[in-house]
Design goal:
It is a single chain. This protein is mainly β. The chain has no helices and six strands. Strands 1, 2, 3, 4, 5 and 6 form a six-stranded antiparallel β-sheet that branches. The two termini are 23 Å apart.
Length: 92
């Protein structure tokens, strides 16, 4: 995991997804795009926020401190990378 200071590019709406780990069988998920500081051509990350974190709203230009977990998984013979935001705090 890595903790970084990032700028919010955009955030989507929260939606429900199936989860074998959740007691109810589903969990809230929200996607957010975060960019490293330095300009519009810096590295960007499309991150998933899960559970109660998915209900948090951030806005374009917000500076945040985010802990990101990078992982990969295989599905039907293809490999996918996932970036999960495990914690995000807006800087004041």
């Amino acid at each position: 995991m890595e903790t970084k200071i990032l700028k919010v590019v955009r955030q989507g709406e929260a939606f429900s997804v199936q989860s074998a780990k959740a007691e109810t069988g589903s969990i809230q998920k929200c996607n957010i795009v975060l960019r490293e500081l330095g300009g519009k051509f810096e590295n960007e990350y499309v991150c998933a926020m899960l559970g109660s974190l998915a209900a948090c709203r951030f806005y374009e230009g917000d500076l945040v401190v985010a802990t990101l977990r990078f992982s990969t998984h295989e599905y039907q013979g293809q490999t996918f990378q996932e970036v999960l935001a495990t914690d995000i705090v807006k800087m004041k």
